[in-house]
Amino acid sequence: MIHKIFEILKTFSVLTALVFPEGAAAQSDEGGRREPFPCVTNIGPNGELFKGYFSFVSAPAGVHTVVASDDNIFVDPLYSFGTSIMIYPYDEAQDGPTELRFFDENSAEIYSCLVFPEVYDFDRVGVEGLTLGVCPELRRPQPMGPDQINVFDSNRRIGSLSVLLPWVADGSVLQGKDVFVITKSSVGVAQFLIFEDRDFLGDQGRTPKEERRYALMGSCPLQVVAADDPLAAPDAPTCILENGAPARGRVGQAVTLQFPLDPAVEFRYIGKGVKSRHLDLEIDGERRTVDVIAGVAGKYDLLFRSETGDQDEICMLIVDP
Predict the structure, then answer these.
(1) 91: left (phi over 0), alpha (psi -120 to 50) or beta
(2) How many CA atoms lie within 13 A of 41 on its CB side?
(3) Tens-digit pLDDT profile for residues 252-301
(4) CB-hemisphere CA count at 13 Å for 169?
(5) Is the pTM of this model over 0.70?
(6) How far apart are CA 274 and CA 141, in angstroms?
(7) Cβ-defined contacts of 263-270 (< 8 Å, 24+)
């Protein structure tokens, strides 16, 4: 059921924002006590949140601060998606509702509602339950295996990146518009929150850091499965030696790889995976080659990026003992 609710919300919220329930601030019982309604989140209309993952909660205009009724929840109004703001229920959050109270810049309360943290269940909601906004395309499909690399190819400038479960997968921004992804040895679902460049919100250069605002581009999950899982994406193509043969080497042996880039493009740099500490690279820009020496046997993914960032190629080097 929650999956169907999310799909309905996603259809309407990706291009606009989460629906804010006008006039739904509270309800009263016979004694006059006002009980908040459930919040609307990107997961559903009944205040649903996933413990240990970022979500977004619908909020009225003019929110300056948010106060939670307990320590289970972190809410940051500086990170937004339309009229919704970022919210994070801690892994150790207790079961049961948490009340959120929204205040304007004059500390006047303008709204309150309830959220309900629950355990994320991949089998029930899949990665769709962590998806929001418009995610850049991945250069390689997911789910991925451990110790692999990938790229979120964005056509918009990126201003900020947050990654949850970095022991599953981590990332960094490439040239301000793409995200370089490295999977680790753990299995699970990492969440990449990609925010628009600050120019999207106007010049914030003179704004204090604690008051700078960021607009979400996409909440983009990435699943990592065991290497022998049949669902795992295939290995990257094998790198090519300088003589054009498929590359393979041995521990301690220098292997000369040619750049797998169009000869017409200028080379910028090489990205390495999580086992990069075992690699020693020596790049020859004129010959468009790289000498690789590995200290440990295994499979090594390498990202070759052009000067403009318009061309990325990922290939794999197998190193035998």
Answers:
(1) alpha
(2) 29
(3) 999 999 999 999 999 999 999 988 889 999 999 999 999 999 999 999 99
(4) 29
(5) yes
(6) 19
(7) 263/288, 265/306, 265/307, 265/308, 265/310, 265/311, 266/306, 266/307, 266/308, 267/304, 267/305, 267/306, 267/307, 268/305, 268/306, 268/307, 268/308, 268/309, 269/305, 270/302, 270/303, 270/304, 270/305
